[in-house]
Amino acid sequence: MNWISNYVRPKIRALVQKDTPDDLWVKSPATGQMIFKKELEKNLWVCPYSGHHMRISARKRLETLFDDGDYTLVELPKTLTDPLKFKDLKRYTDRIKDANAKNEDKEAILVARGTMGGMQTVVAVFNFSYMGGSMGTAVGEGLLTAAKLAVLQEAPLLVIPASGGARMQEGILSLMQMPRSIIAVDMVKDAGLPYVVLLTDPTTGGVSASFAMLGDIAIAEPQANIGFAGKRVIEETIREKLPEGFQTAEYLLEHGMVDMVVHRHDLRETLIRVFNLLTQKGPSAEILPLKGAEEAKEEAAEKNDPAE
Prior knowledge:
308 residues, alpha/beta, 2-enoyl-CoA Hydratase, Chain A, domain 1, 7-stranded mixed sheet, 12 helices, 13% strand, globular
């Protein structure tokens, strides 16, 4: 029996079984169902059973929006790595090293340019997997760079936040990015260019308290968590139970905080249509000249002429 268990069975398993990758399946956070990863990627990381919109990477987001998935990343200004020499349970520099090791991109924001529906467009997208998409000085520089580029190219600016808020390890410097981001928004609006925000899960803290809520058009993905403080914190503060669905995209739409909630499959077409409407220079129909007072009197006289 030991010979069969220890020698024969392992040999048989080696012949009939192949190594199976660990990441073939993904568990849906909404239903708990296991979904084949390739099927999920093909469906833009939307659960095919419940419609739950899972978080996707910043680069994948850019691929789904730009024409033919083609875009050019914009190099961002360098910033101080650890301006306050901050340390909590770990050194801030160590946290950055860990985040860099886990991510292809070395900050919480990417700025890209390309075409959407043939129109030059600038997109600033947050990378939530990099320290929760937290907003530090590098993110502030990224938003200003995106705004300057949009003005230079006379292109619409699309910002896609996915963030837990300001980066506490940079202290007051992270909070200063809130007014800086508003300066970036004003630059685009003063140039008469569209500024559109796509709110994704999550959009919270200092991000939602600044540029994220200033879009000419505010679009959100289904069931995205959007707010400032967390639900539990609010309930403990006001000592009341909050309504069902509070801080979801649908709740905000119902209460006038966002303009539309759009399924991920329809986002690209919706954004292109919005940009076309906002950049349309001429009138949508032929302008007819107003008739003068004398012409109006003559027409009225002709209509009331008894000879006719």
